[in-house]
Specification:
3 helices
Length: about 120
């Protein structure tokens, strides 16, 4: 029975360095999240916390997902057209367009609602 060769010292050093970078990055993210939470809780306790208007409008993740899906869909369509293959990514592009349209409509509706509240008129 032969024992497996141990990794070289350089390989171990690189692995150790990368592991340290990952641990420090995760620690930094954790510390930043904790500090943000403390700040938010201090604002809530002092009564200075104001709800963001993002709840009233369209969520920003819809915009991001819509843009990504549209880009993937249009890229697939362009690739199929250049290669002379059948177009299969058209549905993805249309889903991305639908997400962007939803975002635009929700944003317009939330701005109109905010204008009504700012003017002091009743929403009827």
């Amino acid at each position: 029975m032969q024992l497996a060769a141990l990794p070289s010292l350089a390989d171990a050093a690189v692995f150790g360095f990368l592991a340290l970078v990952v641990v420090l990055t995760l620690g930094l993210v954790g510390v930043l999240a904790y500090l943000d939470h403390r700040k938010t809780m201090a604002l809530v306790e002092s009564g200075q916390y104001v709800e963001a208007e993002a709840d009233a409008g369209a969520p920003t993740w819809v915009l991001a997902v819509g843009l990504v899906l549209l880009a993937i869909g249009l890229g697939g369509v362009a690739e199929a057209l250049v290669a002379g293959a059948p177009v299969e990514e058209l549905t993805t592009a249309f889903v991305g367009l639908a997400a962007l349209a939803y975002y635009a409509l929700k944003r317009r509706a939330s701005r109109a609602g905010a204008a009504v509240v700012r003017d002091g008129r009743a929403d009827s």
